[in-house]
Amino acid sequence: MASLILSRLAFEGRHGATERERRTLRTFEVDVEIETSLDKAAGSDALADTIDYREVSEIVVGLGTSETHHLLESLARRMLDALADRFPGAAFRIELRKLNPPACPGHPAYAGVRMSRPTGGWGRTTEDAEEGENAKPRGGEVPRS
User: Fold this and answer.
1) What pTM was estimated for this model as a whole?
2) Domain 2-131 maps to which CATH number in 3.30.1130.10, 3.30.160.20, 3.10.310.40, 3.40.50.300?
3) Rounded to the nearest 5°, which phi and psi values hold at 144?
C-alpha cells in the first residue's frame, strides 16, 4: 500500500461548542492521508487510475463550509464517512484543526482532532478487511453476524 497526502486544506466554517462561536466564521485546516494501492496509476500515469485529490478536497472543504457541528470530532467523522463512501477501497486518516480557538487559556495556535477509518469501515481493522467477512474469529472474539 501507498499513501496520497493532502496537507493544510483550509476553509472557513461555523463550528464550535457554543452558539456564540458558531455565529462567526472560523478558520480550519485539514490534513488527509489516504492509504490505497497506487500501482496501477504509477504504471499508467493516468488520473483515472488513482484517487483524484481535487475530488478529496471538494468533499472535505464542501462539508466544512456547508454543515455546522458543535465538535471537531463530529465534523471529522462526517468527513471520514463521506470519503469512505466515495472511495470504498481506501483507508483514511485526517487531522482537523480549528485555528486560534477562542476563549482558550494559553492562546494555542490550534485545537485539533486526529481520526482514522480503516478499509471496510468503523469497528473493523485493516486486517479484518483483508481477511474478509467470513474470517474465523481470533481467540476471545465474538463472531460477526
Assistant:
1) 0.81
2) 3.30.1130.10
3) -75, 140
